[in-house]
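Handout for the seminar on molecular recognition.
Each group receives one record of this type.
Step one: identify the two inputs.
Step two: read the structure output and locate the region that could contact zinc ion.
Step three: write two sentences on what you found, then compare them with the reference statements printed after the record.
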Amino acid sequence: MTSQKKSCDWNTTSELYLEYHDKEWGVPVFDDKKHFEFLVLESAQAGLSWLTILKKRENYRKAYDGFDPKKVARYSEKKKAALLANPGIIRNRLKIEASINNAKHFLEIQKEYGSFSRYIWSFPKGKQINGDWKTLSEIPATTPLSDAISADLRKRGFRFLGSTIIYAHLQATGIVNDHITSCFRHKEVKRSFSLNSKVLGILAILLVFILNFSCMGKKDNNLPAGNENGLPTQDQAGPLQELPDLADTIARFSRELARKDIHPDSEAYVEDFLRWFFGEAGIPDRIAYKAATSVLESPAFFMEFFEILNQDPYTYFLVDKKHPLPDNYEPDDLVPLKAGKFLLARDGLLLRKIALDALEEMADAAAEDGITFTIGSTYRSAEYQAQVYAREVEAYGRETADRQSARPGTSQHQLGLVIDFSPIDDAFVNTPASGWLTQNAGRFGFSLSFPDGYEEVTGYRYESWHYRYVGKDLAIFINNYFEGIQQYALQFINAWQEQG
Ligand SMILES: [Zn+2]
Ligand SMILES: [Zn+2]
């Protein structure tokens, strides 16, 4: 159907071509078979018009086993000869050989990346690139992105996929949105997330769990498919029995996603959503990618996360240079530290009870390994922090002070959950206590706040002595999903809550 709306003005009268523009071109593709289909067709196109190929598309589908790369990779000489003799497709030996060769490398990428979609979307870091073209003549034939992908594919052994063909692939599969801005499809194929998308993200995540869960039920079940009435047998009760409800739920979620013009491939949506969300929270894409992978495999990430949200909120409260504490924040359950299980470097040290309990438990465990902690600094009031900071400025100048001391209102120490182990300087890293804490602090709910090499991220230089009590669950969460970097996990939680 030709649209009466304003569109890209492709120079064609072909209904097939226009329908392709209106329905397919530029829609983000996350499905590997679809990617492979386009790669086969695009590499066959070289030197011909796209319309020529579009007209032969269904012939190609039949000739190429529905574009199944596994089957294509195994094509024999006999099959090759049959393709060469097939008048429905482009009978070019080099192109046909390239398609079989490319299928083999396609499988290799799937093995390496989990899917070809992940591989190719990783080049633009999972984000769609939106063109800002007013006219067709402004649209480039290649870009540095297509150069990079084409070069990488060539290195991997692919053939007939130069930068121009790859750019066409990026446009076709919506990695690049090159509908001109006045085209009605420009907006429609745009993948954008709004502040509300958290809700949809959760829906998509649930949808994936439900789908995986119901599939698991089927897969794990080696019994015949029900009794003669087609109903589940007694032994098949469980996941299968719940299917009607699940189907209903899935349908509801799918409708909700469709209503928001979200691609029905929910796994891709979950990954896309998490990568976007982590990006918004200032967390590197490689961490987002790993979290997304784990979410798609098991619900543990979100189950653990929601459990953490039930903790005392100050255990995960983000306090840093950009996120000050609420004005006049002061914990109301501070208790004095007494020497015994550990030594005290000074008098008058205070901690919140949850942190002190954990410290005592940790000190007992350390004692069994012959380690005794000396506590150097703990809770600081805003006034006290102001003095500490002023002293640092006086001694080292503002620039250095800001690398190692917080301005009042922005110090983790004001939480009453932080311990500076003694000696509070770079000598600490060489003590047995430091080695022990590196290995064991997480088990007791403590996390190193300012690790080595992360000054850009945390705002502070490496402080081997500064540990924050975050609770056992969050400490494990940080280690499992955030490469042990507390700051990333707290940024994630903070972003999640801000977008509530
Ligand atoms: Zn268009
Ligand atoms: Zn400290």
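Reference statements: The pocket of zinc ion (ligand 2) is lined by residues 413, 418, 420, 463, 466 (CB under 6 Å). The chain has three domains: 15-188, 197-219+238-298, 314-498.
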